[in-house]
Amino acid sequence: MRQVLKAVLVAAGVVAGAAAAAPQLLERLAPPAPERAKPAALAPSSSREVVLRADRDGHFRTDAMISGRRVPMLVDTGATVVALSYDQGRALGLVSGGDRFDLRVSTANGQVGAKRVVLSDVRVGSVSVPDVTAVVLSPGAMDGNLLGMSFLGRLRRMEAARDRLTLER
Q1: pLDDT tens-digit map of 49-83
Q2: Does the residue 38 lie in any domain?
Q3: Which of 47, 81, 118, 142 has its CA 20 to 30 A from that of 153?
Q4: Which Pfam families match (predicted)?
């Protein structure tokens, strides 16, 4: 029994390590995007960036602005899309009591129902991304909100160094 438990823990560690390294590995393996010619009349746009500090647990938390409302978020590179709790989705007017949550999504707690939505704009500090795909999870599926890759993947740069995470658009 102990050997099985030890094997499971080692396997879990390997999977967690691979999940943490996957975004950087994929970025290195992907071919660079082709350069687009800039119109001669336009000056290069200034970059917008925000630096987040890790909390005591090493997580990056921030408040995002969605539909003009402040939404507390946990930055989660393992989440494919921005994920909102049912209560947050209701508060933002994205779902109502009669909505169906027939999209199945995998979470740390197993498969749950969700409704796909598109957020017109998600802003963290000075970093803003339009038309962000998100899901609102069924009632009771999740308490918090996740800032996932449907937002993070559209940034020019996302860089973690020690207790800081830099997001640049």
Answers
A1: 999 999 999 999 999 999 999 999 999 999 999 99
A2: no
A3: 142
A4: gag-asp_proteas
